[in-house]
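Reading a protein record of the kind used here takes only a little practice. An example makes this concrete, so a full record is given next.
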Amino acid sequence: MIQAYAQSGHGFEALELYHEMLLCGVMPDEASFKSVMVACSYVGMLHDTCHALLVSMASDFDVALSKDHFNCIADMLGRSGQLDRAEEFVHSMPVPPLEKATAWSALLGNCKLQQDAERAARVAEHALELNPGDSATYILLANLFASSGRLQDDMV
């Protein structure tokens, strides 16, 4: 239910359900934490809440961070307009390079939302290194360049 609320853009309801779950003594798992992170992103509770959640995952519930959690953090940073921090975070994610493909793609989408064509070109290079046949990356980049007035020969 937490995930359904979070993915439907009902972040406050997802967070309320998470707190009720804890009050009832139900222990959260990796999926619960990922859903709560998504909910935090939708309601704009980013830095402090996310940090507290990560600390709680490890110390209170002994849940290890996964690639999905890192991807979620990267998306949250980008979605909130913190593209510099998001890009730095993806570079520093403690996962093998191939496991960063989702984070690079999410960051590319966030570059489009923020109309940052220069960063998008850089991010697209990383995404395409990992998944050269991903047509969605090319389409997203082309749409961003078209909407920002950049020429097609600027594309990757």
